Amino acid sequence: MAEFAMSGVGRRVFFRQGTVLKGVVLALLIALIVLPLIRTVLFTLEPETIGAWTDVLASRLSRNLLYKPLANTLLIGAVVATACVLIGGFLAWLVVMTNVPFRKTIGVMATLPFMIPSFAAALAWGTLFRNDRIGGQIGALQGVGLDIPDWLAWGMVPTLIVLTLHYFSLAFTIIAAALATVNSDLIEAAQIAGAKGARIFFGIVLPVTTPALVAAASLCFAGAVSNFATPAILGLPVRMQTLSTRLFGMIEVGQTARGYVIGILLVLISAAFLWGGNRIVAGRRSYTTITGKGGRAKRFDLRAMRWPLFAVAMAILSAATAIPVLVLTLSSFARSSADLFSNWTLHFWLGASNPSIAQGTPGITHNPEIVRALFVTLGLGAATAVAGMAIGLLAAYTVARYREGILSAAIAQISFLPLLIPGIAFGAAYIAYLGAPIGPFPALYGTFILLVIAATAYLLPFAVQTGRAVIQQVGGELEESARITGASFIRRLAEITVPLALRGLVAGGILIFVKIVRDLSLVVLLFTPTMPVLSVLAYRYASEGFGQFANAIAVVILFVSIGASLVASRLQSKSQPWLAA
Amino acid sequence: MRPFSAAYAIALGALIATPAIAGSELDAKMPADLLPMAKDEATVTVYSFTSRIKKVETAFEEAYPEIDLQGFDISSTEQIARLKAEAQAGVANADVVYISDTPVVLTELLEAGIITPYVPPRVADRVPDQYKSPLLAQRLSTKVLMYNEEANPDGAPVSNLWELTTPDWKGRVVMVDPLQRGDYLDLMTEIVLQSDAMAAAYEAHFGSDIDLGGAANAGEKFIADLFANDVILVKSTDDVNVAVGKLGQENPPIGFTSYSDRRDNEEEGWALQVANDVKPAPGIIFPAILALAKDAKHPAAARLVIDFLMGDESKTGGPGLKPFYVAGDYVTRTDIPPHPDAVPLDAFTAWRLQPAETAKIRAAVGDLILTLQ
Prior knowledge:
The complex is a heterodimer of chains A (581) and B (373).
Chain A: H1 2-14, H2 19-43, H3 51-57, H4 62-97, H5 103-109, H6 118-129, H7 140-143, H8 150-153, H9 156-180, H10 184-192, H11 197-226, H12 229-234, H13 243-252, H14 256-283, H15 306-320, H16 322-333, H17 347-350, H18 368-401, H19 406-416, H20 423-434, H21 448-458, H22 460-473, H23 476-484, H24 489-517, H25 523-526, H26 534-543, H27 547-571
Chain B: H1 2-28, H2 31-41, E1 43-48, H3 53-63, E2 68-73, H4 76-89, E3 96-99, H5 102-110, E4 115-116, E5 136-148, E6 173-176, H6 182-193, H7 195-206, H8 218-228, E7 232-234, H9 237-245, E8 254-257, H10 265-268, E9 272-274, E10 283-293, H11 299-309, H12 318-321, E11 330-331, E12 351-352, H13 355-372
Parallel strand pairs in B: 1-2, 1-3, 6-7, 6-8, 10-12
Antiparallel strand pairs in B: 3-10, 4-10, 5-8, 5-9, 5-10, 5-11
């Protein structure tokens, strides 16, 4: 009897419920996320490559390889994060706390800019503001006779503006969610005590929402410092480098070790800020903002400022959404980007090869490379969505059902690691990881599989977060009772969890699809000519001066991603702010 | 045991030798014999450093409708990085490599066994030895100083490279970023290798001995001064061409680009002309290489493409050479007459690239440019 009990305990220790499952999931995550990073670091420590560290950190090259790009990167991060919190916060305040007209419209439009890929926004900027500094086509504004100065056409200022217009909707989503939870009792109490608007704002609203502001700022910061497309398109012509463009440039010309070192430093910087932001937020989580009783406070009456503030909001929002979409679409029909409104042609869409236009490059529907890229891109999106949701669901299920233990904690931590890694650095790590054969496995360089694996790993945080949300919606007791009646793990997952969570899973899958279809930073290094994806083709056309082709491709991506996003948001009953990250 | 070992050795020998025999057998075949095999292969992939591959693609598929040529326009620098990565991964995406950047190609692709030479037997007797070995050069290409002849009807606005470092040309010299395009890094490297000529030209222009400052030699000093004078770096030669050549400019910039891009003047509305008389030289002239990828998946079609690109038996080489039979490109075949509109090769003052010498200091010049950016 005692012996039986002992062995029972022993079984429980070594084969406690879910240990096998946890082990499998953890191994998967390590293979997808941890090993690429380790492989990259190890690559830079080999005898023939270790010199790259000195080259980058302390040589006559360091200033241009690291310190100037680093200074630009940090400046971009700081300014964009500040501007995003101000604009996002302003719009969130308008929508949640005031009686501004068309509140709902503003609320919906403020979440849209994130659906527009940042490279599309950068292309749109170039189409409008490009001046004659580097020759080639001039932009529409110069075309109508305005003299666009260099600082407005190229470099830091446009990069800051484009990135702010891209990331502020992230800040909006986070801050609006936080403002919505501000307890109206607090504000009413203050109003009864005779406090004025400013006093209420600084005394109550601001302190209560500080964690959200910090979170928004650190996410915008991390996004801005790791963005590749915008500084590459708008900064390189005036030799403005950031860490991500430097990393790209070094790997493109075969100076791989130097590129990896810059990539490792970029990961450290981005991670440090996110971690720091998280620490501040974590330390202040003690506010109780949601209580049983609080009702909605009376909206702050803007009085005469209602319409002026509405106009300001709409100006910001249309600059971030309607204008770029319009400019890209128009320019894809315009023979010259200097003149968007006349001399239209369908050549860039439908034309056959014509030697006098763009070296005989045919319109995008006649271009086998672009058609192939469309299929590769859509296939990549679909495969990544399926693989991502499968792994995300598995990881989320494991963590939700077997909460205790080091393994679960490790799964939770590792699955969020990619959030800290800029896409371009992640792409570089995957070249180091799967660019050469590992044991019996062939190298995956240039294959579709490599793109899918890297994209799945890169987007795992979103997949796991979605998976967690849907699992929490499915009550544990259903699954418990199935287990008691002897259903296996696979059967329980297939017949209970997945069917009940299908809506959420599909919505999550679509968002992953959208994220990868419009991504440039991850795929730009994994791209090979024989396995093309749309965003990289658009980038390459743009850098060859074939702006209209680039813009036409960007329009295709835009419509695919906006269409899919709308489907996803219809499937989702409640808003899930983290998905916007 | 002895007979067995002998047989084994023979078998092993045969096994090792088979691919080589197959390769050299293909190497000896004329296009008519390659064609049936190439048709079976049905497709062929070309990495090309020039956008003219699109025209070659059309012409090739007209000549051989059964074979699908997939041409990719990839800069030499990027080709080298990709071919190395692909070789490391054990995948062979490309069949034919059409590339410049000879200094790097020789060491990092040919010596590393990533590409192999091939000279089509049909034209072998009409290509000088220096252009057949170690790799086949289809033509000589250039990166030279070009100006806008519409705005400067009396000839080049500069007569000495050092003028480009003076205030008159601040922010008005255009070239492709030498760290992104190997041809331009070769140009910069050649300027360093030609430091004696650069020093003499300095004296001829300014009338005084050159003060090197912190620079190691006159070539490095020139590069540093050029960058200090706000040289505009763009991404592709077409960007240079438009900036320099576009018609209707009052005060156009000057820039380093391919002499042969003058061919597009009419089509694109440019007025590009070479500054051949500039001292000490307008730039460099270098071979454009055609080679096979080592493990080409379509070996017969690949050889057929190279044969096609060397031109047919008509007077100016037919459709295969047509995109390259232009003023400013110097076809290596001796039986093709020089293009009538171009400066004859022997009167062309550009420096001839010396791949081995360039390879020695190229990386150091690249690092120098990195510090100047």
